Amino acid sequence: MRASSPAVSRAGRLELPPALDRAASAPLLLQILGARGEDLKVDASAVRRFSPYALQVLLAARIAWLVDGRTLRVEQPSPELLLNLALMGAPFEATFEDEGAEPEAPDSDEDNAVTLEMLVRAIEALRAQADERGAELSAAIGNAERYLEDLRQGRAPVPPPGVTELLLSAQELFEAVGSIRGATGIMQTAWLLHFRPLNGPSEQAGLPFLNLSRLGELELKLDANALPPLASLDPARFYLAWSMTLQTSVDEAAIRRAFQGAAGGYLLDLRAAT
Question: Is the whole-model pTM more than 0.70?
Answer without folding.
Answer: no
